[in-house]
Amino acid sequence: MLRAAMSQEMGRALVSVREKVQHAAARRAQSLPAVQPRVVAVSKTKPADMVIDAYSHGQRYFGENYVQELVEKASDANILSSCPEIKWHFIGHLQKHHINKLVAVPNLHVLETIDSVKLADKVNASWQRKGSPEKLKVMVQVNTSSEESKHGLHPSDTVELIRHLREKCPGLEFVGLMTIGSFGHDLAQGPNPDFQVLLKQREEVCEKLGLPMDAVELSMGMSADFEHAIEVGSTNVRVGSTIFGERVYSKPVKGEASAN
Ligand SMILES: *Cc1c(COP(=O)(O)O)cnc(C)c1O
Q: GO molecular function: any one (predicted)?
């Protein structure tokens, strides 16, 4: 396809996602915080040109789940010059030996995948060494489906990790909870149970730590289910293929194994 046509198509996809987000937010229960949901455009496997294109169509938040790929895109000279207000979310599993690399990423906005006290301490130390005047925003990733293969913290450990973040990690700012959840839930069977687990987790966290509900974001929902996720309370959806098109995995990404 010609570049101009591709760019137009992406522009239309972004407009359509934004409309769906607005409509889904309007269908939320009154009891949920009326937070404007953020769309994080997940650009993994897609070239820098497509990020710049989406930015030119007004997109500001982008997500990546491999550290090396994020480092390359976030420091790409064209992205740096064309996208001054870009904000990157890291949404993949973070291995300890990649922390320093991640922390150095320009325009890193939120690290969504803290899932242990050890990781929190190491990220905190690395961020403090960097000497940034601002705290690094972090979310805690919860393994809501309790599948062995999934990263994330067991729900029963969430409150203690957040207490630790708030009391022992002065370089980090806890901003919310994140889940990937099991794939392929059939909404005809009712609400996605993973999202319900995350909502319950927020209630418990707010009650035990005395936090207001609107101070704890929920990152849940992807291309297949972002509207449902927003209806039930998501404040941060991570949408990849609906914006950028299907991903083609032609060669394995160097040095990293799994997507989640
Ligand atoms: C790839 C990815 C997404 C986006 O998936 P789509 O189905 O393409 O929208 C969202 N969240 C995480 C953690 C991902 O790895």
A: pyridoxal phosphate binding
